[in-house]
Design goal:
The protein has 521 residues and is an alpha/beta fold. It contains 21 helices and 12 strands.
């Protein structure tokens, strides 16, 4: 802060003609006559100015920056980002006038704390050393051929473990846990993990790696979850929810895509169908020391993590959802009926420009954190005029498709510099209203569930499905768990009703066993 004060005093008469700059080598601010040409440097200037001011004036820097710097709204940004001066300037890499910096500093002397949450500036040392493994198979052949993908998975899992070793050296235990779960949800869970053993940073002790055994589960028709069972019972279990599979080499791709079209939102049908099995997995992960498991998922897996937190929260410690499609009104109303202590279990983290988070689903709620990185994968909103003129619509569609995957799959927290901000309740409500007015908001998704389901069943009847036997065994397990629940709840008063339902389940189980025998033959 001292260097900024000296800078303002030395350039009082020329402040309106100069621009703010920051020298990373000396870690000092300076004034220059021309706009800094590098966009990365401009982002660094904004981030360092905010971080410097926040050290001395907590709780009011965002508000004062909004009062001093007036920027026009930007159509390719959500209003909650566009109308915030610091986030807007960082996102668009705008130059910083020395006069504005000076006026902000002067107002901070008398400013009161505001309701806006603090922006966190994250600097990650040796960011270039991280492999940043993503969910998609890495090569064209691995995307189309299963055996090649499995071979690549071994190499990718080694890279994941190398990243986790770097994470284990971080001081902050909460930050270490967050990045560990993010790396597992973004990269590891998309690999074939059955029978594997992973070394994961201890959530409690810096520099220590803990061994976990992996057990893979097929949920519903194409949703995969993985139980990470700690070898040391003092460590918490981890339950990973895999996101959408898109490529032919991923054997449950069609069912995985189908799960996104569910009537009440992504992964809701999968949870409603398989919650008994999920509960069994979660109970199995509870350690002898009564440590509850952590849940983490990316994309559609994040949507499933939200469902587990909402309706199975007594069985978990906390749920982390990364870039999830958002739930619908039904889930929002249920969330707000929960005690505040339970609501705090839900952690949602989303990247700016992520299509799934900003364009699918209705309601934002919980502890929501938005991430902005040095690299921006700009999403160009589709307008009505674009579709009328056709060519602009196709151009934007092509550009957005090339940017959508990195915006959705990359973990921004592994950039050398990133910003994160927790949204207030007011900001979430504002976004909930705005998202429904966007022309390219995908409001038709739930209407496609039934035709998509019929299409998937047709394709599997014609071409077969490698996981059919495993799916039927899972269905049998659900029936057995349902039977046990009925037997546990049976009393003299409801005996007749329960016995009728048990008879129906017995018939259902017999039909499934016949299907399983047919698959084996």
């Amino acid at each position: 802060m001292h260097s900024l004060i000296q800078l303002f005093e030395a350039n009082q008469d020329q402040a309106d003609k100069l621009w703010l700059d920051y020298q990373p080598m000396t870690q000092r601010f300076c004034a220059v006559k021309k706009i800094v040409p590098s966009k990365e440097r401009r982002k660094l200037i904004v981030a360092q100015f905010y971080a410097t001011c926040s050290k001395n004036f907590k709780g009011c820097v965002r508000q004062v920056m909004n009062e001093v710097i007036k920027l026009p709204s930007h159509s390719d940004l959500p209003a909650i980002i566009s109308q915030d001066a610091c986030l807007h300037m960082f996102t668009q890499a705008l130059p910083f006038k020395l006069k504005d910096a000076r006026d902000i500093y002067q107002r901070l002397q008398t400013a009161a704390s505001s309701h806006l949450s603090e922006i966190r500036v994250h600097s990650l040392e040796e960011a270039h050393r991280y492999y940043r493994v993503i969910g998609a198979p890495p090569t064209l052949l691995a995307k189309f051929f299963y055996h090649i993908r499995v071979q690549k998975d071994e190499e990718l899992l080694r890279q994941v473990e190398e990243d986790l070793k770097l994470i284990s050296q971080l001081e902050d235990a909460q930050w270490r846990r967050h990045l560990t779960l993010a790396i597992l949800a973004h990269g590891a869970v998309y690999r074939e993990l059955e029978g594997c053993q992973l070394s994961i940073p201890s959530f409690y002790e810096k520099g220590k790696m803990e061994n976990y055994r992996c057990m893979q589960h097929l949920i519903d028709e194409g949703v995969k979850t993985v139980s990470l069972v700690p070898v040391d019972p003092k460590q918490p279990g981890i339950y990973l929810c895999q996101g959408t599979e898109l490529w032919p080499s991923q054997r449950s791709a069609l069912g995985s895509i189908l799960a996104n079209f569910a009537t009440h939102g992504s992964a809701t049908a999968a949870y409603a169908h398989s919650w008994r099995r999920i509960h069994k997995h979660l109970r199995d992960l509870r350690t002898p020391y009564n440590s509850l498991p952590f849940i983490a998922g990316h994309s559609m897996g994040g949507a499933l993590a939200i469902q587990i937190m909402l309706y199975s929260h007594v069985l978990i410690d906390r749920a982390y959802a990364f870039n999830p499609p958002l739930p619908f009104k039904r889930d929002e109303e249920f969330f707000h009926s929960l005690p505040h202590k339970v609501q705090a279990q839900l952690q949602i983290h989303a990247n700016l420009d992520d299509f799934a988070f900003w364009r699918i689903g209705e309601k934002m709620f919980g502890h929501v954190v938005i991430w902005l990185a040095m690299t921006r994968y700009r999403y160009s909103p589709l307008k009505l005029l674009d579709t009328i003129l056709v060519i602009p619509a196709f151009y934007k569609l092509y550009i957005n498709l090339t940017r959508a995957f990195p915006a959705h799959q990359n973990l921004f927290a592994l950039d050398s510099l990133s910003l994160s901000v927790q949204l207030s309740q007011e900001e979430m409500q504002k976004e909930n209203v705005e998202r429904l007015t966007r022309f390219d908001y995908l409001r038709f998704f739930p209407k496609l569930y039934d035709p998509m389901r019929n299409f998937v069943q047709l394709i599997r009847r014609v071409f077969g499905w490698k996981l059919q036997s495993e799916y039927i065994r899972n269905e049998i397990e659900i029936v057995l768990l349902h039977e046990q629940d009925l037997l546990d709840s049976m009393t003299e008063a409801n005996r007749e009703e329960v016995e009728q339902e048990l008879a129906q389940l017995t018939l259902q189980k017999e039909n499934l066993l016949k299907e399983l025998a047919h698959c084996k033959s």
